[in-house]
Amino acid sequence: MSTIEPAIALSPLDGRYRPQTAPLVDFLSEAGLNRERVAIEVEWMILLTNGYESNGFRPVLPGLEPLREPQIDYLRSLVSDFDNTSIAQLAEFEAHTHHDVKAVEYFIDRRMEEADEQLSRDPSLTHLEALVHFGCTSEDINNIAYARAVKAAIERVWIPRLQELVNELTTMSQEFRSIPMLAMTHGQPATPTTLGKELAVYVYRLNRQLKHLEQQEYLGKWNGATGTFGASLAANDQVNWIELSRLFVSERMGLDWNPLTTQIESHDWQAELYSTIAHTNRILHNLAVDMWMYISRGVFAQVPVTGATGSSTMPHKVNPIRFENAEANLEMSCAILESLASTLVESRWQRDLTDSSTQRNIGSGIGHSLLAIDNLLTGLRGIHPNTLAMSQELEGNWEVLGEPIQTAMRAAALENRPGMEHPYEQVKELMRGKAISKEQVEEFIRSLALDPEVKERLAQLTPATYTGLADKLVDFEA
């Protein structure tokens, strides 16, 4: 089966779930990474030949002439026109070099040689082959390629999808803000809340993580084999290589410049990012489990999908599979991302290659998270509140009014009203572990020597109206 064409996917992200994760392929696949590598090499050449504003746009190195516009356009077309032919050609080079970045260098050399026919009226580009990968180590290329690819994937794909989920939860929390619901603490009936307020808790939590991601740094380094600019300085000691590095990383590559590294960029920013995404995953996991249990309890009802099968033997079932799928994929994502976050920050002395292998799993970690978000969205859009079930649940748990009654008794005790001794214990004796009726609660309230206004306020309470300020809390934003 390994010889079947087209190739059969080993990972479900590239097989069964390809439609949901496909947007990440443009950035986090091997092809996407190679396109970034080509872009970095090309932009470095253009900077060296055509200079920058503060040097008057003069060539950085002697012996160079500024590239003309058609030459620049041709070089940049290696990135904009990166296609299946480019991928195949790169694969051929890597099969010989056994080195991914060296293959990129040879790929650009070949394309520069091929440019002569297309740029016949301009000087040949072949004389600039020595400028490809000038003063660089492969990690200069790779660290920036990964940073740009991850940044694009997070900002253009993952965050917008998460924001869509947060928007859906926000809409639901507003719509259901006043629907009373029995709360459960330790799995037992507790002070009532509203469905909207409970969803708003997740909106608040997720918005905090989105704010962290807005402040996320994406660092890049450009300083040679061991971070000393040694080769560049040996080639020309008249160039301010440190300033050129800062300009290239921050202004040309759109990243945050890291001036002080070993051979590798230290990956601390990656650890921070993956930890934040993993933390977000954990919040989403909590949401998926809660929704699953709400459905099981009857708080939410699922909308059957026409033609869908819930069970192979039980036709009546509508299983909460979207939330279960999300739960599983969030666990997979966390396993990968938390491993990356803990291992990428270590490197033996100035360099070892463990990070190179582990970083190839970035797409899988983010892909499982994206798939989970997609399933959560689909799941949320396929449910609606079961207000009858919630109402019946509240009506069957009048004992939850023990809290406001004993609290009112505490306040009355401070005023030295009679019969208010040990209010908690009095209510506990009446209600703990018992099924209490509406009539029993009303009778107990009438027996208390409370201020008439307080007594009336308590008498008006029901499990469905005892929701405090839950309705107002929905409007709080992170």
General description of the model:
With 478 residues, the chain is mainly alpha-helical. It has 3 domains: 20-131, Fumarase/aspartase (N-terminal domain) (Fumarase C, Chain B, domain 1, Orthogonal Bundle); 149-224 and 264-306 and 317-386, Up-down Bundle (Fumarase C, Chain A, domain 2), CATH 1.20.200.10; 398-462, Fumarase/aspartase (C-terminal domain) (Ribonucleotide Reductase Protein R1, domain 1, Orthogonal Bundle), CATH 1.10.40.30. The chain has helices spanning 18-28, 30-50, 69-80, 84-97, 100-118, 138-175, 195-214, 230-235, 241-252, 268-297, 321-343, 354-358, 362-380, 387-395, 402-414, 423-431, 438-446, 452-460, 470-473; strands at residues 180-185, 188-194, 219-220, 256-257, 300-302, 383-385. The protein has a two-stranded antiparallel sheet with strand order 1-2. A two-stranded parallel sheet has the order 3-4. The chain starts with 17 loop residues before the first helix and ends in a 5-residue tail after the last helix. 37% of the residues are buried.
- The geometry reads as elongated
Number of DSSP E strands: 6
Biggest sheet strand order reads: 1-2
Average pLDDT for all residues:
93
Unreliable spans are none
Please state the oligomeric state of the protein chains shown: single chain
> Could you give the order of the helices and strands?
HHHHHHEEHEHHEHEHHHEHHHHHH
Q: Pairing-aware structural class of the strands and helices?
A: mainly alpha
Overall domain count: 3
Strand content: under 5%
Largest sheet: number of strands, sense, barrel closure: 2 strands, antiparallel
Query: Per CATH, which architecture of the largest domain?
Result: Up-down Bundle
**How many H/I helices?**
19
What is the fourth-level CATH superfamily of the largest domain?
Fumarase/aspartase (Central domain)
Q: In the CATH scheme, what's the topology name of the largest domain?
A: Fumarase C, Chain A, domain 2
Radius of gyration: 31 Å
Alpha carbon gap, first and last residue: 52 Å
CATH class placement of the largest domain: Mainly Alpha
Helix fraction bin: 55-70%
GO molecular function: lyase activity
Domain Adenylosuccinate lyase PurB C-terminal: 347-467
Pfam family, one: Lyase_1
InterPro entries: Fumarase/histidase_N (IPR024083), Fumarate_lyase_CS (IPR020557), Fumarate_lyase_fam (IPR000362), Fumarate_lyase_N (IPR022761), L-Aspartase-like (IPR008948), PurB_bact (IPR047136), PurB_C (IPR013539)
